[in-house]
């Protein structure tokens, strides 16, 4: 029982922290969604371990820990993809700025 209370408090604090960070850092919606989904999955698994085991078996994982690990990997790959897209946009903006400065200097 104590473990579940500690888990609820920790997950609530993490949810509030993520919401505050979204506003403070102007976090991308995909990042916010993945963090909140992670909090929800971990919370569900910690409270309803049998349900978590059924979900992991449904997705073809033998152990619940393997399912959580795979979920974390997929979330990290999605974040990396979103950030690489953002880096590409910034590189093109940088190239445009350099070209504009070069034309003004001539």
Provide a concise account of the structure shown.
The chain has 106 residues and is mainly α.
Record the SSE blueprint.
Blueprint lengths: L1 H24 L3 H19 L1 H10 L5 H42 L1
Question: Any overview of this molecule?
Answer:
With 106 residues, this protein is mostly helical. The protein has one domain. The protein has 4 helices and no strands. It has helices at residues 2-25, 29-47, 49-58, 64-105. Helix 2 runs antiparallel to helix 4 (64-105) and helix 3 (49-58) packs across helix 4.
How much helicity do the residues have?
A: over 70%
Helices and strands: which structural class? mainly alpha
Radius of gyration: 20 Å
Broad shape: elongated
Low-confidence residue ranges: none
> What value does the average pLDDT take?
83
Cα-to-Cα separation, first versus last residue = 73 Å
What keyword list fits this structure?
about 110 residues; mainly alpha
């Amino acid at each position: 029982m104590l473990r579940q209370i500690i888990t609820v408090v920790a997950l609530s604090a993490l949810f509030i922290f993520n919401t505050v960070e979204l506003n403070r850092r102007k976090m991308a919606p995909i990042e916010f969604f993945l963090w909140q989904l992670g909090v929800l999955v971990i919370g569900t698994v910690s409270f309803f371990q049998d349900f978590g085991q059924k979900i992991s078996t449904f997705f073809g994982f033998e152990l619940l820990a393997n399912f959580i690990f795979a979920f974390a990997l997929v979330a990290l790959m999605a974040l990396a993809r979103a950030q690489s897209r953002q880096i590409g946009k910034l590189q093109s903006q940088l190239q445009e700025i350099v070209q504009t400065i070069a034309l003004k200097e001539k």
